[in-house]
Amino acid sequence: MSRRVVITGLGCVTPLGSVEETWSRLTAGESGTGPLTVFDAAPYHSRVAGEVRNFDPTAYLEQRQVTALPRQAQFALVAAQDALRDAGIGALSDPERTGIFLGTSIGPLATTTVQQSIFTEKGITRVHPMGPAHNYPGVAGSEVAIHTGVTGPVMTVSTACTSGADAIGLGLLHIRAGIVDLAVVGASEAPLFPLLFAAFDRLGLMSRWRGDPRQACRPFAADRLGIVLSEGAAMCVLEAEDAARRRNAPILAELAGFGATCDAHHQLHQLPSGAEAVRAMRLALCDAQIGPSEIDYISAHGTGTPANDPIETAAVKQVLGERAYAVPMSSIKSMTGHLMGACGPLELIASVKALREGVLPPTINLDVADPTCDLDYVPNRAREARVRSVMSNTFGFGSRNASIVLRAPA
């Protein structure tokens, strides 16, 4: 019999702040999106983003490290160290039995584009010699390992927006298999740079809202216009339950089930039927050994795009049947924006807090729902509720689907 896996620590860097700041603002219905300021937004149709403002990595890192490391890796280091601190872990007791499983959709691509510009404009002598070490997708995982002393498996997953959710699943499987006893899992993204923003802008996937930028992300609403691109990181500490109990760790939730599938359909668009999203949810439920009737709350992927929200709604109906209308489901992307590969871990953190505190974060900016989106999305205001089991969904480019099931600790 595989070991139970529990969550013992949480850490994040988001447009809303740290874990406690983010949760407080989520339950207050506050948005962290605003006008794009990190570069000139004038040429773009979309001019809203979720920026991490007043970020000071020097509280965790030496200035020379900050100067050398990509912003994406800086976010990862800060969130990982906060998660370990939250778990009551200082020095690791067994680095060989600890793993790091991180996700990222684009890694340090922002730094790579800067280095390309330097090379083009100033030549070979101005290229940073640490480029090979700092411009590859696994840099964040390597840096977390170096700073924490982890000598177990350190792996990076890049599966678009499901990257972080898949990394969580990978950590879960490693602990269950007895390969490690403890794992730092999550994802980090720094996508707010001109080249990538331009590509998303040309695709027409980002919201072109011209009103209050805090209202730009509108999941499930009739007037939704698309995603709001955001930056940040979210990390969790997973442990084998027996190991966590031996050290009297704070057990926040049980990570009970994981399911992942691929639509094999299109690089950008979900399968319209949602069949593989349905299968991912059912696989997660089966893995957790619970039925659809036991789910009390669903953390939706809920991007606010015209195509994806109805597909997710229909998929949930297929999984839960008529009970879907009685199960609350909300999208925190309405407040955080879309953190790409880090959205799944961040939504998992919010799910853990909802489970522990009996409060469901709302879907804000939902004044008039799309008629095809007819479930209970906890519109505009947080809601108290008894929560014992949660499903968290993440879908991504390349036809990917991932679903996670949490339970209250025994």
Task: Provide an overview of this structure.
- With 410 residues, this protein is α/β, with parallel strands linked by helices.
- The protein has two domains: 5-246, Thiolase/Chalcone synthase (Peroxisomal Thiolase, Chain A, domain 1), CATH 3.40.47; 257-407, Thiolase/Chalcone synthase (Peroxisomal Thiolase, Chain A, domain 1), CATH 3.40.47.
- It contains 13 helices and 14 strands.
- The strands form three sheets. It has a ten-stranded mixed β-sheet with strand order 5-4-6-7-1-8-14-13-9-10, with helices on both faces.
- Helix 3 (71-86) packs across helix 6 and helix 10 (275-288) packs across helix 11.
- The longest helix is centred in the N-terminal third of the chain and has 16 residues, at 71-86.
- The two termini are 17 Å apart.
Low-confidence stretches at least 5 residues in length (pLDDT < 50)?
none
Radius of gyration: 20 Å
Give the mean pLDDT.
Answer: 95
Helix share, percent: 25-40%
Task: Write down the CATH class of the largest domain.
Answer: Alpha Beta
* CATH architecture field of the largest domain: 3-Layer(aba) Sandwich
